[in-house]
Specification:
With 350 residues, the chain is of the alpha+beta class. Helices cover 37% and strands 25% of the residues. The chain has a seven-stranded mixed β-sheet with strand order 7-9-6-10-8-11-12, sandwiched between helices. A hairpin with a 2-residue loop joins strand 11 and strand 12. The two termini are 25 Å apart.
């Protein structure tokens, strides 16, 4: 495509035609010329946004940005209602690629029953990969925001979802032909079948429900204590599970102790990481959510009852020591390292 902002004709046929806009929550329609998004906020609720930026050649790239942003928003206690998208495209990308990228995002939005409330795109000779920035828009009860800083010493840490899964799927999207030389077609199908695990809205909503039920029970039993609610959530983003644990502890000013062997990881992710010499514990993992609560096993069981993968990792602690155990051995968690997917990209472009 030509460098610069999309022409009106290209925008109309390859962007606008992919969108299904009903405008219930939004006051401005998405258009090539509208730079703003206006959202109606009901009384007693606050607006909340979360932004994710992803890059890649695959047509599914924008869908990963959407999943990251929407999961982050939900992990703060908000109900997503739409997204705003900014796309920067390499000039060598054809219009069909643009159309398929928008279609991928629109399909996910329909699944989530949210809107693409605004979208802008232009081509630039300055980029060699597509860059997609997604801002998720939602509302939350004014007193209902969940923050990592809410974690306290002596609480349980639960992992919902699989670590490294996002990174594995994005490598598959970019290099399926290459991976087909190493893995069987059946194995590749197993990998592809996991893409639904990246969106964790239902599991996060189950965690909200668990909190509300626990609050009611606590209020009845102990005069208003809310000790059983989910105190903190953090999606595993850039830097992987190690990075997310560090961020959670830093935000709350606490220590922690977790068991490496209890971190759920798919064998497909292990195989791909071994093939490319990557560390899955330091690889971006949209769809994996850390949750902190007083009675973690109850929360984990509630999540499993809802169909999600959930496991107890360990506990938060007073002080600043962040310890990882593995088969009786202990080591301290390091500061977050660069993300392994980014290292993979860098090595392939040298």
């Amino acid at each position: 495509m030509k460098a610069g902002k999309l022409s009106q004709a290209v925008w109309a046929r390859s962007v606008q035609k992919q969108l299904n806009f009903d405008g219930d929550h939004f006051l401005l329609r998405p258009s090539r010329d509208e730079m703003c998004t206006a959202m109606h906020v009901p009384a007693g609720r606050a607006a909340l946004t979360a932004t994710a930026c992803v890059s890649g050649h695959a047509r599914s790239t924008g869908a990963y940005g959407l999943a990251k942003a929407v999961n982050d928003l939900a992990a703060r206690g908000a109900e997503p209602v739409g997204i705003a998208v900014q796309m920067l495209l390499p000039v060598q990308m054809d219009e069909q690629g643009l159309k398929e990228t928008v279609r991928h995002m629109e399909q996910l939005c329909r699944k989530l029953q949210i809107q693409i409330a605004g979208i802008q795109a232009e081509s630039s000779p300055a980029v060699s990969q597509m860059i997609v920035q997604v801002t998720a828009l939602g509302t939350v009860e004014e007193e209902g925001i969940i923050c990592p800083a809410g974690a306290r010493p002596g609480q349980d840490i639960v992992l919902c979802g699989y670590i490294g899964l996002e990174g594995m799927l994005r490598i598959l999207d970019e290099c399926e032909e290459e991976l087909a030389k190493r893995f069987s077609p059946g194995f590749l199908r197993q990998m592809r079948a996991m893409d639904g695990e990246i969106l964790q809205i239902d599991a996060i909503r189950n965690a909200w429900k668990y909190s509300k039920i626990s609050q009611k029970a606590d209020s009845f039993e102990s005069s208003g204590s809310s000790g059983n609610r989910v105190a903190a959530m953090q999606q595993v983003g850039s830097g992987g599970i190690f990075g997310a644990l560090w961020e959670l502890a830093e935000a709350a000013g606490i220590g922690l102790e977790v068991d490496l062997k209890k971190m759920s990881i798919r064998q497909e992710t292990v195989e791909v990481c071994e093939y490319y010499h990557l560390n899955p514990y330091q690889m971006t993992s949209a769809g994996a959510i850390l949750m902190v609560a007083e009675h973690g096993e109850r929360l984990a069981q509630s999540l499993r009852d809802g169909g999600a993968r959930a496991s107890m990792l360990g506990v938060t602690a007073a002080g600043s020591a962040r310890v990882i155990t593995s088969e009786g051995e202990k080591r301290f968690l390091d500061r977050p390292a660069p993300d392994e997917l980014m290292r993979w990209w860098e090595e392939r472009t040298i």
